[in-house]
Amino acid sequence: MTVSGLATPYGFQDFPHYTEGRSASVNKIVIHHMATTDADSVPGIWKNREASAHYGITQDGSIRAYVDENNTAWHAGQWGVNSSSIGIEHANTTGAPDWGIAQATIDSSAKLVADIAQRYGFGQVVPYKNLFPHSEFYGTACPGQLKAKLQEIADKANDIMAGGNGNIATQDNGGSAPAPKVDNRSASIKEFQDKWKNRWALRGTFRIRTCQMQYGMYQALTDDLNVEPNSWFYNGIPTKLLEDLSDPQGRAFEDGAIVRFKDDVNFGTIDAYDTNTNSIGIQFTGYPDMIWFDADKFLAHP
Ligand SMILES: [Zn+2]
After folding, report:
1. pLDDT (tens digit, 9 = 90+) per residue, 24-44?
2. pTM of the entire structure?
3. Distance between Cα 144 and ligand 1 center (Å)
4. Which of 65, 195, 210, 226 is 20 to 30 A off residue 302, Cα-Cα?
5. Could you tell me the distance, in angstroms and rounded to a whole number, from the CA of residue 301 to the centre of ligand 1?
6. Ligand 1 mean position, distance from CA 168 (Å)
7. 137 CA to middle of ligand 1, Å?
8. All domains in the chain, ordered by first residue
């Protein structure tokens, strides 16, 4: 178990929406705002909402731990990013549209960021290299005005790591320019993006490992297409999208059944990519969550 010494456990893992363990090593921090001034309502809201984060910082700068750093919190909206990051929530002092953040919250954030960066060997904290706003990975307004404070948090964190107290003057430049991006896409993701212009079609059959009622609907997992390790939340395919070729009725979905996507849903557009796990995300119409597939397996499948 790993929890920052700066944090106090609060409602610690008293909610189901995180994943035990990690499938990648930690190399980044993702900054969020709570979108509420009621810091105490977090993490209780995650008993129902399919979300979580490792830490939260209140208006007075108290740091609360919600999830063990060795576990994967569900905060970034991308499995690969969740696997490789620590998520920090920040309480707001005002609501929409300003979403104010107290200076005490920012100052504590810098301390926590410095502590995490030091423990995981990030080196210098640099926005868009190892410190990201949630909006970098998901279509969201989160983290509101904190997006323009990333450089301040990084500057203070770097000062603390260098032995300072983080109490340095910072000028708000409205957010720093993103670091130049290297092309770390896999061959499969390049092909989906460059050759197929984000389009996909998968008409061949595949074998399901198992089928269960999960999140209110029957879903199937398949090793033929899913990323490992796969989970019901990220990789479950609703059986309503599938036809069971092993069953004359087309809907028994026994373990090991041979299935295929129904004709009206076996093609479309890829909605998201995750280069860390070499995955593609597809959001099927009428379903709440993105389904993630292994890019190599998906591309190679007829
Ligand atoms: Zn967020």
Report:
1. 999 999 999 999 999 999 999
2. 0.59
3. 9
4. 210
5. 34
6. 27
7. 10
8. 8-161 (3.40.80.10), 187-300 (2.40.50.670)
Only one residue has tokens 């810091």, namely 39
Alpha carbon of 259 to ligand 1 centroid (Å): 36
Q: What is the pLDDT of residues 120-133, one digit of tens each?
A: 999 999 999 999 99
**Residue in the structure block whose two tokens are 């609501």:** 95
* Residue found under tokens 């292994």: 294
Q: Annotate the chain with DSSP letters as a single string.
A: ----TT-EESSTT-SS-EESS-SS---EEEE---SSS-GGGTTGGGGTSS---SEEE-TT--EEE-S-TTSEE--SSSHHHHHTEEEEEE--SS-TTT----HHHHHHHHHHHHHHHHHHT--S--BTTTEEEGGGTSS--TTGGGGGGHHHHHHHHHHHHTTS-S-------SSPPPPPPP----HHHHIIIIISTTEEE--S-EE-SEEEEETTEEEEE-TTTPPSSP-HHHH-EEGGGEEETTSTTS----TT-EEEE-GGGSEEE--EEETTTTEEEE--TT-SS-EEEEHHHHHH--
What is the 31 CA–ligand 1 centroid distance (Å)?
7
pLDDT in tens, the chain (302 residues): 999 999 999 999 999 999 999 999 999 999 999 999 999 999 999 999 999 999 999 999 999 999 999 999 999 999 999 999 999 999 999 988 888 999 999 999 999 999 999 999 999 999 999 999 999 998 888 999 999 999 999 999 999 998 888 876 544 444 444 555 567 788 999 999 999 999 999 999 999 999 999 888 999 999 999 876 678 888 899 999 999 999 888 789 999 999 999 999 999 999 888 877 788 999 898 887 789 899 999 999 98
- In the reported structure, the alpha carbon of residue 45 is separated from the centroid of ligand 1 by a whole-number distance in angstroms of 14
Residue type (1 letter), 225: L
Instruction: Report CA(270)–ligand 1 centroid distance (Å).
Output: 22
